[in-house]
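Subject: Short-chain dehydrogenase

B.,
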Amino acid sequence: MQTLPHTPRTALITGVSRSRGLGFAVATQLAELNHHVILTARDKSQAEQFAVQLRETGREATALRLDLADRSSIHEAVSHLARTIGHLDVLVNNASTMPDFNTRSVLEVDFDDVQSAFQVDVIGCWCLTQALLPLLRRAPAARIVNVSSGGARRIGSCKPGPVHSPAHSLAKYTLDALTATLATALADTPILVNAVDPGSVATHPERGDDADDLPPAEAAKGIVRAATLSADGPTGGIFRDDHPLRIISQ
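Prediction pasted inline below.
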């Protein structure tokens, strides 16, 4: 994938609440590419500490409270952005939840977990993207990147098999479908919409990260590439390790 030149841009990344998190890694790399990064989390103080770290290195970074399970929080955040930045070049929908981490069968789900997963990964992401469209349209060539997962890939494959964390996996599979649908709806604009599966990432040592999990900085690279695609880049695609798994248009 070709990328845009290193020009000052504004990027919003959701779910930046962990020092070893994927969101902070993405924010750091976009800041290094001269983006003014807006770090968001349900607890603003969590995002603020990482914004401070970036500012101490000379990068432009601000923090904002954003809870994807709370529609009023979404609209408050968007209203603030409309007053303060006027446009948005990059939206990275990274925030996610895995309430059924220990669930090993779709026949054993807790439907509170299902509701929670879909509320954050699908409905909240959808609501935020729609609310930010006026700001994204004001950018010369905005990019929307939805962070997918390997669980979504397993559901979408032709190989039958068990799906662990089914609420999370099905929510991410639906997010992939939303990605393609948004790309089609925005086909007559310069906005490109893609999903990226970062693979298994070492972000939760307390859960026992596997030895072969990718470091967040490495996993973030594919997301950053999708966030900086050139005008002739794909849209409606699902990528893993910079390789397209599916593209609806080019």
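The domain at 10-245 is CATH 3.40.50.720 (Rossmann fold).

T.
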